[in-house]
User: What shape does this take?
Amino acid sequence: MNGLKKGIRKVEIALKWDPSPAGQPPSDLDVVAATYLASDPYGDPAYVVHFDSRSPDGTIYLNRDSKDGQGFGWDEVMTVELDRLDARYARVVVGVVIQQRSEQRTFVSVINPALRIREGYAALAEDNFGDVLGSTAATVAEFVREGSGTWDFQPGIHGFEDDPATFTAIMGRARRP
Assistant: This one.
């Protein structure tokens, strides 16, 4: 039956949070995705997709971008079409970064943050960043291409205490136990 395994094909990563109280600077969370080549799956990212960009082939794109958490429903939404991603890519790591403005922000200072990762209508993961409250950024998912060419989802929230540029450069490196 292994030949019938479809793997993960197309996922949606969604964030939401409540606006900051009146008089406070807005909280701005961003979804970022980094792709890694099969020849160097834990090296530097081949490219990174964030609020001002999309993948060169259009397989990773931001559907919705919020700078303050205002509005109804999910504030930030990214789609990753793994089934269309070129065979030279072996990993896609997805993260969430808090934009740092006048003062350093961590997840503890963001009101009601929430994460949902789904394929179609099936939820693959949901979280509230409760395990990384002191972090300024976090990886939230890893997708790995199997030998058969199908994609596998590896959940897990891992916190970082880096600025957005440093985070996107190191988010896909191998973690030490």
